[in-house]
Amino acid sequence: MTLYDLIVSRRTIRQFKPDSVSKEVLKKLVNVARLAPSGANLQPLEFIVVDDEEIRKQIFACLRWAAYVAPEGDPKSGHEPVAYMVNLVNTKIRDRGFERDIGAAVENMILAALEEDIGSCWVDTIDRSKVQEILNIPEEYKIDSILALGYTDEKPILEEMKESVKYWKDIEGKLHVPKRKLEDVIHFNKF
Ligand SMILES: Cc1cc2nc3c(=O)[nH]c(=O)nc-3n(C[C@H](O)[C@H](O)[C@H](O)COP(=O)(O)O)c2cc1C
Questions:
Q1: Cα 67 to middle of ligand 1, angstroms
Q2: What's the CA-to-centroid distance between 52 and ligand 1, angstroms?
Q3: Which of 79, 110, 123, 176 has the fewest CB atoms within 10 Å, i.e. is most exposed?
Q4: pLDDT tens string 63-91
Q5: Half-sphere exposure of residue 178, counting CA atoms within 13 Å on the CB side?
Q6: Ligand 1 atom 29: the closest Cα is on which residue?
C-alpha cells in the first residue's frame, strides 16, 4: 500500500484483537515519534510505553471513548487496547506551543502502527491526575494525550459529511465516520 492509500484508509479504531504488540514494534513507534518535526527542534516530548496487563487495566479505567455514541463505542470486554503510548511534555523544556509537535509525533506513530496492521485511538478524555499517579509521572511532565493501540478488530466506514460531524453506529454496530468533502475545504490560490 502506498503512504497515500494508508493515510486515506486510516480510521480511529476502538475494538482490538487480544494479540499483543511486540516490544520491538512499540519501540519503533517511539522512534518515529522522536524523529517528527519539532518547533525550534526543542524536542519536549517523551513517551511511556504501557503493555503490562495490570497497568493497562488501570489506564483503561481512566479513559473515555467515542462520546457521540457512548457507551456503544467503548471497547468491548476482551477487545480493549493491548498497549498504550502515554504522550508526555517536559514543561521545563516547553510549557506552551508544543501542540504541533504532539500532532506530528502522534500522527507518525498512528501511521507507522497502521503499516503493521495495528489500529489506534488517540485519546484526550483522560483522568490525568489518576494516570499521573499510576505511572509515577513527575510533576514537571504534562500528560498531553494517550494513544491506545492493538491489532484492528473493526472496520469503520468513511462517509461524506452531510449536516453533522457526528459519527454514528448502524444496526449491525458498524461505525460510520463523516468527513467534509474535498471541494468544501480546498481553496486554490485565493480564498
Ligand atoms: C486530539 C484528539 C483527541 C481525541 N480524543 C478522543 C477521546 O478522548 N476518545 C475517543 O474515543 N476518541 C478520541 N479521538 C478520536 C476522534 O473521535 C476521531 O479522530 C474522529 O471521530 C474522526 O474519526 P477518524 O479518526 O476515524 O477519522 C480524538 C482525536 C483527536 C485528534
A1: 9
A2: 24
A3: 176
A4: 999 999 999 999 999 999 999 999 999 99
A5: 12
A6: 122
CATH number (domain holding residue 138): 3.40.109.10
Give the separation between CA 85 and CA 149, rounded to whole angstroms: 8
Minimum CA distance residue for ligand 1 atom 30:
122
Q: Would you say the CB of residue 122 lies under 6 angstroms from ligand 1? A: yes
For residue range 150-164, what is the model confidence (pLDDT) as tens digits?
999 999 999 999 999
- The verdict on 83 and 174 lying in the same domain is no
Q: What CATH number corresponds to the domain at position 190?
A: 2.20.180
Q: Are residues 175 and 113 in the same domain?
A: no
Residue 120 C-alpha to ligand 1 middle, in angstroms?
10
**Model-level pTM greater than 0.85?**
yes
Task: Tell me which residue range forms the domain holding 161.
Answer: 156-191
